[in-house]
Amino acid sequence: MGMWFVPLTTVLAAHGLENIRPYAFAASALAAFVSPLIFGAMADRHASPVRVLRWLGLATAAAMALASTAIKLGWNPWLVLALIQLHALCTSPTWGLASTIVLARLSDAKQQFGPIRAMATLGWMAGCWLVSALNADTSPLAGYSGAVTWLVLSVFTLSLPSVEPPKSAAHLTLRERLGLDALSLLKNHDHRVVFITAALFNIPMAAFYPYTPPHLRDLGMEHTTAWMTLGQITEVLTMFGLAWFLAKWRLKWILAAGLVFGLVRYGLCALDSKALILAGVTLHGCSFTLVFITAQIYLDERVDSAWRARAQALLSVMVGGVGNLIGYLGTGWWFAANARPAGENWPVFWSGLTVAVAVVLVYFLLAYHGRSAGTAKDSPQARLDSN
User: Fold this and answer.
1) What's the whole-model pTM score?
2) What are phi and psi of 346, to 5 degrees?
3) For residues 164 and 201, what is the distance between their CA atoms, to the nearest angstrom?
4) How many domains does the chain have?
5) Residue 165 forms part of a structural domain
6) CB 197 within 8 A of CB 255
7) Whole-angstrom Cα distance, residue 286 to residue 229?
């Protein structure tokens, strides 16, 4: 994933495709409205998520190679965009499926998920370093390398123990087959607030990968794909500390801390200094982990096991669909609005996003309830609600 998303903006720009950048990133958002729920429902009811992930990995590898070839050969921009959309449809469900597979093997998600999830971050970092080591920050070679890695993942799933889905009813409605019944999870107030907060936060966050690398390049930096992994260093450290945070702090304050880190991150970028932008990039890992990984653990604990793949899929829809679609298109518009003949007005661009994160922080602090007054203090539900 890192081999694709991090260098994508510079690869497109180097091949005269800068105009489709917002739409290329928004492709993942459009895909997230459809495929995660469908494949999440499949993994909950019909097939092992391991098997579903295997075939999606193969499809993603093929689509990524095709899209990279289209960019390299200078095909029509709309065809390039269509192949990027195909890649997004294949890759969009994989994150939720991978989380479901991992969480199904854990006896205590609070203690165990953080360090295991850190492996994904190390993989992201390794992919970014490899791209820069190959001098592929502006080359389709980045996509070809990612395609090979997806093939390796598909082969690796053959060694994984199967996670069998629960028995389901023989006759399912179209709504159930499409996974739309997962929307009923939004009836729970705190579930709804967590879903909405994650989606709203992802709107300004969507600017991070498309626009931080060109800002760094404007300041004279090269190998921006590798520099962007500074955020993954703190992400790994935060992952390993997540169990301690979950044991000591209420969920509300962990999520709020992540939002604050996100606010400070963009505030530092707005100061338009090379060192301060790199400091902001470094804070990205803390922000990402404390908001999105905590939300995944929250769903694993608070949602019945028969619904967990769909719950993770719904989170993917809210974050990768609603958040990313509005975020990529909205920040693309905001970027264009701040363009000047001499270049982008970076301080104003990042300041606007800082304000957006502040609004999300205020919403979460006011809306999230946590422990309900009517829940018995020592009941299992009370212990969950207290988080």
Assistant:
1) 0.70
2) -60, -45
3) 34
4) 1
5) no
6) yes
7) 13
